[in-house]
Write a structure and sequence with these properties.
Chain lengths: ~350, ~400, ~220
């Protein structure tokens, strides 16, 4: 296992490669999502062209934006809790990096092959709530405070359906290891036919929908963007941030969108794998090394599809009200996901 | 001391202690109100309206709009202007539907002078009036999306409003402030090709209305955000002098285009006044959507039979308006806009009371915002639809 | 210029308006001081100062439920003219006789309001005199809730007090602002500093030749 890295490289090189890989795995999806979806797709949906000047079709716009943000003054409000105010965006971004650590990109291309990967993923994803809450509180701004409180309420409410939606997958796969879930999907079969493997989106469709809704809420994207709510709270918990720190929030927002899409593709779409039956692989040890190159590309494609859906919803819907959002989580999503777990468990025992 | 007395003492002590504990608990659980300033600079206020909202959690205890950040004193300024010059001032009251502001003032002056614009001028006035209504309200429809968190509609609104502004520009030379109306008629005739172009644009605008219905009004989140929010009963609406779509959304069948006889062309065409029984935010928005569509139909019909002839009546070179008082109001995009003009036979008005729609429409805000949530403030304000120049004048 | 002496009974709209005045007179009696009906156009009534609120209630009960606006008029001619004069030159002689408009009046300041009948679509312009020494009338807030802001506006612009108004704060001006801008004796400072060149209308009018009515300048 992990022949690529472990066999012939010293430990520090490995660590360096992992860090670089992590940066790529976080920033590349974020950049692609921002350019392709936020700049271009959104513009086309709104019958305009979007950025066209920087580079061909505005493809360098992202770098221009980053350069612009880096140049701006880093303002800390006078009444703000300075240290915490400055840490907050980093906490949010850190949760993204922690998330990507467990995502498998290929048979050997992973950062950590953690046995309880799903558990870790769900635990770490809520770290960003802390960052948002302290950003909202420490800004010494009423809009930020309201935004932070809304974010806390909302993210906690949507943590639960997300966990419950994933439980169905865990029951079906019989493991909490994300690598194991990928293998279980691609090595699986549908009533004896293994031409497609068994991606859990087919069996866990309800779970998939709930997971995506919960992701939308975790990311505070539009139907659930009350913490930012431009027309009400100016910019919510980000109101007082400028320059580099705002950029960090911005990157974290879209990087997390990418990472959650990666996780959703691992849990429900078969991750990096192709159906093992195509190449007569029996287990993960049979898989040829080229999958370590093709796997990330497959992952990236799936990630883009899911991120497209997230952005599509974002650009089309108006926003819920806070109480409607809570009602939706507690009265609709959670009961449905509980029923989903029950049915999955019964069918698991039955078959 | 007997044992019973000590017992009573002990009971009293226990009672006092429990009261103290309760009080401590109450103090700990007591929530403190928070005053939130929405505006003067805020993404949700068109211009610089400031709403001082006292919140308990996210619920509004009381809210009070604070105006005056854009007061330009037009009523005073009209007193030192001549009649033809006043139109350039009143243009800037409701800056999204400027032409519609000029019309009632000109009509009031004409009423005092006892003249009437020639039929062709009346027709073109009506067409431009309706075009400015379309330009104004279509932007409202887009903006409504932004207020509720949907970014896409506003771009569609800007896209299609552009066509209407082009028409206004082609006719008047100004996109926002035409200043085209004259006492006794209009400055110019329609440009060549206006009729065909307008017909095409009206079709585009009807498509835009359908698009908005699909994208926004049919959306369940939109409906759950607006239905039952900010309900204004009929009698309250009348007391506060709400007008336009806000009044019609409360079930009052009232449209000044139909209900009074003005030298305009509305009574020459066939159209419908939309009302809605609910009186909530959804009703107000829905009425406006229907009105845009109705306006396009009015324009289409007017284009079919524009009379020929001059666009300017014979008026004196120097306009002196005879002594008298006149009140003329029209159904502007925002509601009833009226001018009470007092003339002393001078070159300019002696006093002009500008009754703008938004002033009355917004005066209901302290009443209607009691007990709503912060997001509903935005919904209600958006659905009441004000333009700050129209409040402050 | 009280009630018109032209025959008006033939036009249906006028009997309607005449009846409104008669109805109001039946409600408030002699407090209806003067009235003017313009055939097919509008109604002006003037009530005595004490009956201001009572007249509002009476009109509301008569079905004039729609509150259109409330404001005031300062009938004093402006001592500053229209600002067309050179401010450095000595001020020209101006006629300063106070002359009220329709439905007459006796004081410099008058309160003016308009109420509309929602189904007949007929409005009533109602005026009342406000004494110069003590410019206070009764508030309409308890009759028409919408009068609140209009009275605040009239208060700050004309300095008219409204007895019974809950909260006569300034609407537009800063709290410490002195003076009442819409009173005629409040100078428009920009005009005081510099004469306004725009007062002369030099644009040639379309549709009519310039020599038709004599030249302007």
């Amino acid at each position: 296992m992990n022949a690529l890295l472990a066999a012939d490289l010293p430990y520090w090189v490995q660590s360096l490669l992992r860090v670089l890989g992590g940066l790529v795995a976080v920033l590349l999806p974020a950049g692609t999502i921002v350019y392709l979806f936020l700049f271009k797709m959104m513009s086309f949906m709104q019958s305009r062209l979007g950025p066209m000047e920087a580079g061909p079709y505005g493809s360098m716009q992202l770098f221009a934006e980053v350069g612009k943000w880096l140049q701006k003054e880093d303002i800390t409000p006078a009444r703000a809790d300075r240290t915490i105010f400055k840490i907050a965006p980093l906490v949010v971004l850190a949760s993204t990096f922690l998330l990507v650590a467990v995502v498998p990109f290929g048979p050997d291309a992973w950062f950590t092959n953690f046995e309880a990967g799903v558990f870790y993923m769900l635990a770490v994803s809520s770290v960003s709530v802390l960052g948002i809450l302290i950003a909202g509180w420490s800004s010494a701004n009423k809009y930020s405070l309201l935004g932070g409180l809304r974010a806390a309420g909302q993210l906690i409410a949507y943590e639960l359906p997300m966990v419950l939606a994933v439980i169905g997958v865990i029951i079906q796969a019989g493991t909490m290891n994300l690598q194991g879930i990928v293998v279980a999907q691609n090595g699986g079969e549908i009533f004896g036919w293994n031409g497609l493997g068994n991606p859990y989106i087919l069996t866990q469709f309800t779970g998939f929908i709930i997971f995506m809704i919960a992701v939308q809420a975790e990311l505070t994207q539009t139907p659930f963007d009350m913490p930012i709510a431009e027309s009400e709270l100016v910019s919510g918990y980000m109101t007082e941030y400028s320059g580099f720190r705002f950029l960090t929030f911005f990157i974290a927002e879209f990087a997390t969108a990418g990472v959650f899409s990666l996780i959703a593709s691992v849990l429900f779409l078969g991750g990096w794998g192709v159906p093992f039956a195509w190449f007569d692989w029996k287990s993960i040890d049979d898989i040829s090394d080229w999958m370590n190159v093709v796997g990330p590309l497959i992952m990236f494609t799936k990630m883009m599809v899911l991120a497209f859906v997230i952005m599509w919803v974002r650009f089309s819907y108006p926003r819920f009200r806070e109480d409607q959002l809570q009602r939706f989580a507690w009265k609709v999503l959670i009961p449905i996901s509980l029923v989903n777990i029950m049915i999955t468990a019964i069918l698991k025992v039955a078959f | 001391m007997t044992s019973t007395e000590s017992l009573i003492d002990r009971r009293q002590l226990a009672y006092i202690a429990s009261q103290a504990a309760d009080a401590r608990l109450n103090v700990e659980l007591e929530t403190e109100g928070m005053t939130l300033n929405i505006g003067p600079q805020h993404p949700a206020t068109h211009g610089t309206l400031r709403i001082i909202a006292h919140l308990d959690g996210e619920q509004v205890v009381w809210a009070e709009p604070s105006c005056g950040y854009m007061h330009r004193g037009y009523e005073k300024l009209t007193e030192v202007r001549t009649y033809p010059q006043v139109t350039s001032l009143v243009n800037r009251i409701d800056w999204l539907g400027s032409f519609a502001n000029e019309v009632p003032f000109i009509l009031a002056a004409e009423k005092l002078m006892g003249i009437e614009a020639p039929p062709r001028a009346q027709w073109i006035r009506t067409i431009l009036f309706e075009l400015s209504r379309i330009a104004n309200v279509s932007l409202f429809l887009g903006d409504l999306g932004v207020q509720l968190g949907a970014v896409t509609p506003v771009f569609m609104a800007f896209r299609d409003r552009e066509h209407v502004l082009n028409l206004i520009e082609a006719t008047t030379g100004g996109r926002f402030h035409p200043n085209f109306d004259r006492i006794g008629g209009l400055k110019d005739d329609l440009p060549a090709g206006f009729i065909d172009e307008t017909r095409a644009v009206m079709k585009t605008l009807r498509n835009f209305c359908t698009e908005m219905e699909d994208l926004l009004f049919g959306n369940e989140i939109f409906q759950s955000r607006t239905r039952g929010i900010g309900v204004i009963p009929k009698d309250i609406a009348m007391q506060y002098g709400l007008s336009g779509a806000n009044l019609r959304a409360s079930g009052v069948d009232w449209d000044l285009r139909r209900d009074q006889s003005l030298p305009m062309a509305w009574d020459k065409v066939d159209w419908k006044v939309w009302t809605h029984p609910d009186g909530d935010s959804f009703a107000r928005c829905w009425i406006r959507l229907q009105e845009v569509r109705e306006s396009t139909l009015i324009v289409d019909q007017l284009l079919n039979n524009i009379p020929s002839g001059p666009v300017m009546a014979k008026v004196p070179r120097i306009i002196k308006v005879p002594e008298g008082e006149a009140w003329v109001s029209t159904e502007n995009p925002l509601g009833e806009m009226g001018y009470y003009v007092v003339s002393k036979g001078d070159l300019g008005p002696f006093r002009t009371k500008i009754r703008s729609a938004s002033f009355n429409n917004i005066s209901i805000v302290p009443w209607i915002l009691k007990g709503v949530y912060v997001p509903d403030i935005i919904t209600i304000l958006a659905s009441l639809y004000f333009i700050l120049g129209d409040i402050d004048r | 210029m009280s009630s018109t002496d032209t025959p008006i009974a033939e036009i249906p709209g006028d009997t309607l308006r005449e009846r409104i005045v008669d109805d109001l007179r039946a409600h408030i009696g002699a407090d209806l001081v003067d009235s003017l009906v313009k055939p097919g156009d509008d109604v002006w009534v003037r009530v005595s100062t004490d009956a201001w609120r009572r007249a509002g209630v009476a009109l509301r009960d008569m079905g004039f439920e729609y509150f259109c606006f409330l404001s005031a008029i300062d009938w004093m001619p402006s001592p500053f003219g229209k600002g067309e004069d050179d401010p450095t030159a000595p001020p020209p002689e101006r006629d300063d006789t106070v002359k009220q408009g329709y439905a007459g009046g006796a004081t410099r300041l008058q309160v003016l309001a308009r109420l509309v009948h929602p189904t007949l679509h007929v409005g009533v312009n109602i005026k009342c005199d406000v004494s110069d020494s003590e410019p206070v009338v009764e508030s309409w807030v308890s009759v028409f809730a919408g009068a609140n802001w209009h009275e605040r506006e009239a208060h700050e612009m004309f300095g008219i007090g409204f007895a019974g108004h809950p909260d006569l704060r300034n609407m537009y001006l800063p709290t410490e602002f002195e003076g009442h801008p819409l009173r005629k004796d409040f100078p428009l400072l920009a005009r005081m500093v510099k004469p306004w060149p725009g007062i002369v209308d030099v644009e040639p009018m379309p549709g009519g030749s310039a020599d038709e009515e004599g030249d302007a300048e």
